[in-house]
Here is the input.
Amino acid sequence: MKLKSPKSSKRSRILVRKCHRIEEFEACVELEREVWQSADIDIVPIPLFVVATETGGHVLGAYEGKDLVGFTLAVAGWRNRKPYLHSHMTAVHSAYRDLGIGRQLKLFQRKDALVRGISLVEWTFDPLATKNAYFNLMSLGAIVRRYLPNAYGITTSPLHGGLPTDRLIAEWHLRSSHVRRVLEGKPPTASQGKNAVRITIPANLDTLRESNQAKVIEVQSRVRTQFTQWLAKKYAATAVIASELGMDYILEPWKNSRSK
Here is the structure.
């Protein structure tokens, strides 16, 4: 997908809207291939985009003019006797990153969900991907209470580096005071309480992925053990902060009432 450089573009030129037509879904799949570079077996196909839009989910596209520069695909789900959205994929073209487009997509997603009476959106992300963790917890106000070891199996995407696809599940409780405060520009503070714990992600993981995959697997195994241990004790990851060694997840005891 060839797009013009956005350097002279303003964020206000990006329009987020729902996608409905096959040709729009084709553009989403093309962008999906550009971002994940996966083999066909791991590509989410056009029929799933159609199913999502026809069964209570949605496909949201971010456009600059006629060009699709980002998208979000969500499917409808049912949890605790209530509807929710599982946001399966969000992608932004490499030439349009760090312009706030991901946030625009998520805010549109929140608005659309609330209009339809849906107050929870979930999605998965790699616990080792600290940039995503910061966005999810500090910019959107999501929390984490579940860990899925090797959720999707070993994939063909270079982004996954042949590692088990361990994933955290972000819970975005759209109506909660926690989320509202974060979206108002008040990111969660790292708890200093005696019950808070930290899980550290080393700062040099990108370098290690290229030079020492065994070490990355070792880090992943440690992180998996720590998250599994503390989440089982009803803790939740509520923030991430920079530390001397890299980035720390902050986990603290969580009560369901705080999600309201």
